[in-house]
Design a protein that fits this description.
This protein is an alpha+beta fold. The radius of gyration is 18 Å and the shape is globular. Helices cover 30% and strands 27% of the residues. The protein has one domain: Nucleoside Triphosphate Pyrophosphohydrolase (Alpha-Beta Complex), CATH 3.90.79.10. The chain is built from nine helices and 13 strands. A hairpin with a 7-residue loop joins strand 9 and strand 10. Helix 3 packs across helix 4, helix 4 packs across helix 5 and helix 7 packs across helix 8.
Length: 274
């Protein structure tokens, strides 16, 4: 394990409430399962990753650059999800959790990127399909409004979830000092040929393709804000220049839960990295 302190700048302190002297809660808030996905491409040059900037009014991580993702939905596990790729049992072992949670986490990863970007990691046989744009827009809206479950969408469109298109990358848990907490698995996936993420989500006011090293440099210059998990994932992606290399990266994975600490250089999130 390697200890690392992520210093909080003045703006980050304000966003996190650190400058208000917010006391740590007597009992940590419960965590919610969540998934986030690094969508990558290299067809226009060196490796790029798709990122969203969360709107400033969001209760969690406002104005932060993030990867598409969000909380798991119990219907992701309860619906009869059409499934291809590694079995749920294998994913449970990979993710270090039970089968119901593994199903939710993988389904949430695929569902969330569809809701937030329009990219769909599913197929109708051996090919990843192109949904009619109007149909896709309608389905995304219904999923966001919880009018339908993801399993229902796949069944009605005669599609199967492609769990084989995801690679597990990291496991981070929101610090106990935060009022909203998530138990988040990070994945990486290539954007399927013919699909292009659009970032059409009410949770973001900006979407863009960024080179990982450029995103890290912009963070260091104070031009964009990143949470520690996002920063670490970008630093890892910056080590490679192609999608195939990004999908093949192999890092030790263990749960990481930073703690808010005071250091000689100011407030920081301290994490024990695997």
């Amino acid at each position: 394990m390697t200890q690392r302190d992520f210093l909080l700048g003045a703006m980050r302190e304000a966003l996190l409430g650190v400058d208000e002297g917010r006391p740590e809660p007597a009992e940590p808030a419960p965590t919610k399962l969540a998934s986030t996905v690094m969508l990558v491409r290299d067809d226009e040059g060196p490796l790029e990753v798709f990122m969203l900037r969360r709107v400033s009014s969001m209760a969690f991580a406002p104005s932060m650059h993030v990867f598409p993702g969000g909380g798991a939905d119990r219907r992701d596990a309860e619906d009869e999800l059409p499934w291809a790729g590694p079995a749920v049992e294998e994913w449970a072992e990979t993710l270090g959790t039970d089968e119901a949670s593994a199903r939710m986490l993988v389904a949430a990863a695929v569902r969330e990127i569809f809701e937030e970007t329009g990219v769909l990691l599913a197929s109708d046989a051996d090919e990843v399909p192109q949904l009619d744009p109007e149909v896709a827009t309608d389905l995304r809206a219904k999923l966001v409004a919880h009018e339908v479950g993801f399993g229902q969408v796949l069944l009605e469109q005669h599609l199967v979830l492609r769990s084989d298109l995801l690679r597990y990358r990291a496991h981070w848990i929101t610090p106990e000092a935060e009022p909203r907490r998530f138990d988040t698995r990070f994945f990486v996936a290539a954007v399927p040929q013919g699909q292009d993420p659009d970032g059409e989500t009410s949770e973001a006011d900006r979407s863009e393709w960024l080179r990982p090293d450029a995103a890290v440099a912009a963070f260091e210059d104070g031009d964009l804000m990143l949470m520690p998990p996002t920063l670490v994932c970008l630093e890892q992606l910056a080590e490679v220049s192609t999608v195939s290399a990004a999908l093949s990266q192999d890092f030790p994975i263990a749960p990481v839960m930073p703690q808010l600490v005071q250091t000689g250089a100011g407030p920081a999130m301290r994490a024990q990295l695997p």
